[in-house]
Amino acid sequence: MSADLWDGPLDEQPAGPPVIADLDAERILAAAVMARTDLVDDLAMQGFDPADITTDRYRWIWYAVEEIRASLQPGAIRWEAIDRQLQAWRADGRMPTVPSTEDELRDLYIDAAPASAPWAADQVTRKAVAARLVAHGHDCITRGRSAAFDPDADVAAAQSELDGVVRTSTDDETIQVSDLLAGVLERAVTPPTNEDRIPTGFIDLDGLFTGGFMPGQMIVVGARPAMGKTTFGLGLARAAAVHNGITTLFESLEMGRDELANSVVSAEARVPLHHIKQGTVTDDGVQRLARRAPQIKAAPLYISDNAHLSMPILRARVRHLVRTAGLRLVVVDYLQLMQAPKAESRQVAVSEMSRQLKLLAKEFGITVVVLAQLNRGPEQRTDKTPMVSDLRESGSIEQDADIVILLHREDAYAKESPRAGEADLIVGKHRGGPTATITTAFQGHYARFVDMAVTG
Predict the structure, then answer these.
(1) 213-237, pLDDT tens digit by residue?
(2) Which of 143, 217, 262, 441 has an alpha carbon 20 to 30 Å from 287's alpha carbon atom?
(3) How far is CA 129 from CA 48, 123, 140, 158, 164, in A?
(4) Residue 4: how many CB atoms within 10 A of its CB?
């Protein structure tokens, strides 16, 4: 074997992701903005980010154009003005790289082709996305090979970081009101349907919300313990999934999936919940269960009982179900049990989770219902009726919520109450709409709330 083979470099894997860039497109872009400084704004409005330019010298030319374009005098020699700015930044330590020389700037300017700028910007953006994707892949490999690999946390974090690979364009964020007018007029004469609303299962509540919950909304349902938060939240999930075929995710941090399934069947088939738990369902109950089983089985209702639910895990699950099943409704039971992010205080952590849940609803265009526990305020008052301010760590929760519904049952405090079996749904906040108190019937033995008119 020849000596040069022995002396050649080892075929080693690179330590990190390779550099992915279109240097020709970056050069075209730098030249174009020198010749036409207004391209800086035009390309930015189309979502271009100069940070995607990998060549330091070209990127700093862009920054220099941004800096001096407003002060450029007519007839000014562009490359000289840009050279002065670059040299000034270099002198005061703001520019860490050696700038292009004046001759190099002049040659760039002479070769400028402003008409090619949109194409060049698109090429640079594409390469930047590819580079971030490759870097993300290397990060996933590092996570997977780590001895401290945590399937829940690391996979969820990797999925969340994947969203940052493609940056959102800004070209659709600003719009003139005249362009929105046609949509307003159409909505004014077109009653909402289940395609753009999620029915709650309660006639009066749907009437208050013009047909049900809307995409992008965060609804907070607050109650003291043993008021029926889970039962109510599961009822919203049943109304959407079982009765209207709307894909729904129920996230339970307290009850197991078997318990939840028991409650769904009890409520739908009107079979006493304690009979299901004890295995003593009568023949009549079995027949009712058999009649309802096909519709329950066909319902697009997903249940998760991960007691260690965090925002990254929830976000990953939502993303998956939105893409694969058309998810439209998420019910979280309940907020204060979620794994909180590290923060200076519990209130700050809960506030951050509340904000992230609202952003989740907006980003994916879904409805998020969050069950939350109230503080002891109602129990310390003569009038036990809850208020929005009774929400634990309420500041941010109340602010982020589009709708706040408070559950209240007088018979939970006074067994002999003349209102035994009744439950109030107190709509304490309704962004853009009226508030009200709606009375329903609480049928605990069937694990459900129903309209007062429902007797069966």
Answers:
(1) 999 999 999 888 888 889 999 999 9
(2) 441
(3) 12, 10, 16, 16, 9
(4) 7
